[in-house]
Specification:
With 121 residues, the protein is mainly alpha-helical. The protein is built from 6 helices and no strands.
Length: 121
């Protein structure tokens, strides 16, 4: 019987993990909710999202089904070189959502008011 070799994650694993986390956040799910949908612990979801563990293809299909995206979604936009530092529109949106809860409530209210004003113009 062959034994599994542990291999280091690379930028592709990091990219796929980020895409899983971004989609999960956009759907308003936490890691525990996603973990229940794919039949694992939230710690394992975290390890995949942070590219600590590599994601097997079958497991990636489970994530695609749970997150309601085609499996190719996780590789969309990837190129043969590590991703650039510039953020896409979707990445900026996820960053805003991710950090919104970290600011004080009065700043959240002000930020929302600012966004309404800017969006109208």
């Amino acid at each position: 019987m062959a034994t599994a070799r542990r291999t280091k994650s690379n930028y592709v694993d990091q990219y796929v993990g980020e895409r899983i986390a971004d989609r999960r956040i956009l759907l308003g799910m936490d890691q525990t909710q996603l973990a229940k949908l794919v039949g694992m612990t939230h710690n394992q979801v975290s390890r995949y999202e942070h590219a600590i563990n590599r994601i097997p293809t079958g497991r990636l299909l489970d994530f695609a089904k749970a997150l309601n995206v085609p499996i190719g979604y996780f590789l969309e936009g990837i190129v043969d070189v590590p991703p650039r530092e510039t953020l896409t529109h979707e990445q900026m949106l996820v960053e805003m959502v991710r950090h919104f809860g970290e600011i004080s409530e009065d700043l959240q209210v002000a930020f929302c008011a600012l966004m309404r004003i800017v969006a109208v113009k």
